[in-house]
Amino acid sequence: MKKLTSIALVLLIACVLTSGVALGKAHKVEFLVKAVINGVEISPGKYKLEVNGDNMAEIYKGKELLVSAKVEVLPLGKAYPNSVSQKSDGRVTEIRLKKERVVFGES
After folding, report:
1. How many helices (H) and strands (E) would you count in the chain?
2. Segments of 32-91 assigned E as strands
């Protein structure tokens, strides 16, 4: 029984470590044009994106938190990596990283 519990704990830890975006890890994102997330306008430039365990994305300029938004993290699939998808009004729909897509809900 003790061995089974240990195996289950190891599997749980492995699943948490390998699922979705590396939680808490900072990703560099560059917006080439004005972007809007949750009604907050973001000027073109380089930013930091973090996704936490509650599927909340946070965009930082340096150490300053600019905006946070509820997101869904999905596999990249056939989408172009390292890109940002926006609507014509500037609203960000998704940020594509190397292996994942960070998809923003309607705001």
Report:
1. 1, 9
2. 35-37, 40-42, 45-51, 56-61, 64-75, 83-86
pLDDT in tens, the chain (107 residues): 544 333 333 333 333 333 444 456 889 999 999 999 999 999 999 999 999 988 999 999 999 999 999 999 999 988 889 999 999 999 999 999 999 999 998 75
Question: What was the pLDDT predicted at 107?
Answer: 53
Q: What does DSSP assign to residue 11? A: H
67, 47 contact by CB (below 8 A): no
The CA distances from residue 40 to 25, 34, 68, 94, 99, in Å, are 23, 10, 9, 15, 26
Q: What is the DSSP letter of 91?
A: B
